[in-house]
Amino acid sequence: MRGVNTERAQQGVPTGAGAVAARVAVPAGVLAAVVGAFAYVGTVDPNEPGHYPVCPLLRLTGVYCPGCGGLRSAYAFAHGDWVTALGANALAVTGYLAFAVLWTVWVVRAVRGRPMRIDLGPVQLWSLGALLLVFTVVRNLPFGGWLHP
User: Fold this and answer.
1) pLDDT tens profile 88-115
2) What is the pTM of this model?
3) Computed from CA positions of residues 73, 77, 83, 86, in that sequence, does the dihedral angle turn out positive or negative?
């Protein structure tokens, strides 16, 4: 067991509790910010008028943007009502779950001393853009009424 951490030390990755805490500080800060945002939205109901601004695209054009219903979705998600959260904005719920997975991977890699890299190429970026566009178009068509917030 003597040579267990020597390989890491030779690679330039600091070991010890202080080094691990330093590597996990940024992911912990990001989690604290997200939890704070969800706590605020969880206490201030977006279903009651006057607390949050209205979506400018919806107000001016009547078109639902990809984010419309996101606050109602976060409110329902924070209260454990996942069916209502999906009904308010299914894409947002997918984003919440993707964030949870990516954050967990980030923390595990930070604890192990490995950097977190997300290298999205043009294909992945165009695919994400196409997904947003299709979601937006479908939720604004008559047969996509089930995607309305």
Assistant:
1) 999 999 999 999 999 999 999 999 888 8
2) 0.78
3) positive
- Whether the CB-CB separation of 136 and 66 falls below 8 Å is answered with yes
What's the residue count for the chain?
Answer: 149
DSSP class of residue 148 equals: -
Q: What is the mean pLDDT of each run of 10 residues along the chain (149 residues)?
A: 48 66 90 95 89 88 91 94 93 94 93 87 95 92 84
Residue 42, Cβ density class (10 Å: 0-12 exposed, 13-18 middle, ≥19 buried): middle
65 with 57: CB under 8 angstroms?
yes
Residues 6+ away with beta carbon under 8 Å from 65: 55, 57, 58, 136
Structure-token match 């605020």, residue found: 40
Give me the amino acid identity at 93. V
